[in-house]
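BUG-359 | component: ligand-complex export | severity: low

The export step for aspartic acid jobs runs without errors, but we want the raw record kept on the ticket for reference. Input record follows.
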Amino acid sequence: MKRTTDYGWERFSALPLADKAECFARPDGMPFHTIFAQQFGRGALDRLCDAATQIRAIAKTRAGMEFLQGQLFHKRAMIYFTQPSSRTFLSFLSACQILGLRTGEVRDASVSSEFKGESREDSIRTFSSYFDLIVMRTREKGLAEKMAWALSRSRRPVPIINAGSGKDQHPTQALLDVYTLRRSFERRGGLRGLTVVYVGDLARGRTVRSLSQLLANYEGIRHVFVAPAQLAIGEDVLASLRAAGQECVVSDDMAKWLPEADAVYMTRIQDEWDESRGESARIDTSRFKIGLDQMRLMKPGAILMHPLPRRDEIAPEVDSDPRAMYWRQVRNGMWMRAALIASTFDRLSRIDKYYRDNL
Ligand code: ASP
């Protein structure tokens, strides 16, 4: 069993993801730190999806809520979000409340001692002394991983959940996306063999990077990456999916792929990453938007997803189509994040027992 304490940061950061995942795991194999999507195998995904459904059902009654809130009443979580966010922030806040965790928050690094020249690593380490869980969203790609490495080596290891790291990873969004897919296809044979069409800014969007990796746990998925050439999916994603035996297609023709899709995963243009002013605005994205005409091209049983926030890539008229799944994704996210936090603190068996005894 590999342990974080065996490695300095330089060596640790160069390890293959499978080794890092081993270092970040709890003894039961579930993640202690949740940093990247590749930490989740099929067993972990099934456990978390089941737990999300159980928590959702238990939370329907007052007695159930009292049980859930008793689970982590003695724990505190810090929500450290130095990158703009309201929905993911509130989703985590609600997930913590469901399990009784008290929360503190940092939304703006400029009001903390980082402003006085303290390193971000030192600030987070200081905060970790007051809390039992850190949920982190940052613009920097590897900070959550570095903090997870550092805190694992400290006397009081505090778990980190990555709530979005730069352009790289958004593992909890991917978990809720898989949960949404599972609920949508559970009476139709599950996820096996689905064609998933990802559309939009695939070069800079972290949600598709994480989701496609999680879906590599399911057999026979066909991943179709549709984007303008300037925003095409990274070669690293294609290489790792292909190495896992998954079929990948790269295209710039959305209309061609809509009739084939079981799930269409739309994303917005991530122009906050533009290197020069107006760079994204010069890209022709007109063929990568969904309105009622495009919905007519999709199968009756297909679903339309979006991590939100949306801009104009899905027209508001589409919202009332029963295939539009994005508002449900939001709700699913809260239950899935509660399941992940419960798992981080080893509460899944208790929740399972309560569910079996009472529902
Ligand atoms: N909310 C998602 C994220 O944080 C998607 C987006 O911002 O476009 O990556």
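Assignee comment: Attached the raw record above. Residues 4-170+332-351 form a domain with the Rossmann fold fold (CATH 3.40.50.1370).
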